[in-house]
From TrEMBL:
This is Two-pore calcium channel 3. The gene is TPCN3. The keyword Membrane applies. It is a multi-pass membrane protein. It holds the Pfam family Ion_trans.
Amino acid sequence: MAEVASQELLLAAAFVSDAQYNRNIPFKTSPEAVRLYYLYNRWFMRTATYFFIFLNLSLAVFEEPAVYPLPFLATSLVEVLCLLVFFGRLMHFAKITHRNVFWKDTKNICIMVAILLSLTDLAIYGALRIYNIKSVRWSRIVRPIFLINFAESRQIRRAFRSIRNTLPEITYVFLLFMFSLLMFSLMALKLFGERNLQTAEGLPYFRDYLEIVFDLYVLVTTANSPDVMMPAFDFSSWYALFFIAFVIVNTYIFMSLFLAVVYNNYKKHLKNEIRTLAYMKRRKMIEAFNLLKEEEGTQFVVREAMWKQLVKLVAPDISNSHRELLLRISDDEQKGFIDKKSFLQLADLLNIQVITLKIRSHPLGQWMPRVYRSAVSQFLRSVVRHRGFVWTYDVIILINAVFIALDEESPYISYAEWVFLALYIIEILLKVYTYEPRLLIFQKTNLFLFSATKYNSQRILDIVFILRVLRLIRIVDSIQRFRVIMNTLINIVPTMLTFGGLTLVVYCIFAIIGMELFHGKIQFFPPNSNAPYALECGNPALKDSLFARGKYCKNNFNNFASSFIVLMELTVPAKLYFIAFHIVMVIIIVNIFVSFILEAFFVEYSLEKSEVETAIEQKIQELGMGVQEEALQDEQLLDNMESPDNDLEGEGGTKAQPKGLVFKIASKRYRTVDALLQRMFEAEIPLEDEGPSFEEILNLSPATAVPGDLTSERAV
């Protein structure tokens, strides 16, 4: 019986952990599968997977054509090792999921096909290499598949789903855009083709229709503006109207239409994604509750002892005091059990970052208590704690910033810098005297800088002033409208990693294709080189070209690093390749990223305007409690509420308090926009609504009815 209860507890902990981290893996519920599932989700397993994924991608730097050449045997052995790790990870995943689920999952099939293709290509390439037959490593293009399709990369897959869902709608706008481009190109041919105009290089101007189409397409990116217009503009100023009309229609209107279409589809499918996450999270928490529930009167509950064991399994790293705080929030009336409503909030509760601060008495309060607790000392410390003290030094920093911008050669400016330094030292000493001695670390750092022999006094001043001026960010953050923007920037940081991975995938694919197509077509030669065709970048076809005369020879596809740089610059000489990359990267991916920023800003603005906070966060802020260290023996939380009358400053404060702990919310800012949207959606789901089953959740479509509208307009 005890073993069965232990297995149910382990399974319930797996459900709660999945709900906490929004994992949607449909794992088996047998004891062996659950233990393997725990191992699968361990941090070192995920870290190892990502390490070998990026190691596999980085092989392009060492393979021919290489930035840093390594023997073929070395790179092939590393690739085989990576493929074995991927296969092992895939087999581990197969062990924890049902067979029919595993084989229906497209990403598993993609991984297996990619492994098979890579091994096949490696064997063929190695065999041909033995006979000195040159061949192409075509399988390198499938390496990004591993970054996309492993279970850990669900955010990147989600971004790709956004692209896939956007393509049908964006195709119609793109066809209209191409129609407009072709029409303007035809007009340009008729307007300028018979004028015998020439470019600055002496080449015919706008006489070939396909060349005109490409030049005008580049003009949409503004990369060749105003160069493409100047021959016509020099001939007649009225011809500028043609290019102005083209830029307005195609650059401003059509590019904005692309963004509008992408944003509209992004919001629609984001709503479905968030709905799926919210329902899955609710379903997993309900499954965990059903495993642990006991009957208490007319309701089912989870006993306090069972709840504590569950939290220890789900979050083993949190302290006893932190766990007692969570229990106090879940069992507010201290009944000895947690009801269903409070239990369903456990995943959110664990996701809130709580800082535990130990209350220490100030050393001066022990060494010279009479002096430290005197009326003068208390007055001095109250001045340092007052907001006016902070504002005063903010003004000093602003003045200091003005002086930094002035001429340092003036002796008065140099003297003023030492005055500011003295004021900063006084501030540090006053804060060390008032607050905990941990600020001494900063003081010791400054002393170390002063004692460093390799820096002169002026360099030390520069370092100190730069660090102090950074405090101006806090002044900006204190203004509400600026805070909205700052919060938006903070919220998009996690998604920057997702779109960074997405961008890496696209760049890798295009870089590998570019290397295979254009390797050796362009060569870079040092200045004063006597090599044949050095002035033509090693290619006679580039003689007298703007590319060669502009000394762009280093922009080539001769290795992986150079390919990345060329793609970043968008200086691709091949026209179709350039257009394909621009469509994928700029029109689609960048617009999806901009769509996310727009949604993040709207949500953050709504949050600031309506002061949206979850009930859990409000509860922790209300409690804001200090915990007696001595009382933790019985794991009971004492009612030491933090308040103006009980500020928990320890012996160094104006009121002596016992040694203990203080709990603080790390930040009121939501870590991701998705988390906020998910909470907004969960608020619409009634407690008694257990939602659809696991299978139904995974098959939800955008047309499925939902309880309310999950968009930012709802909060506005």
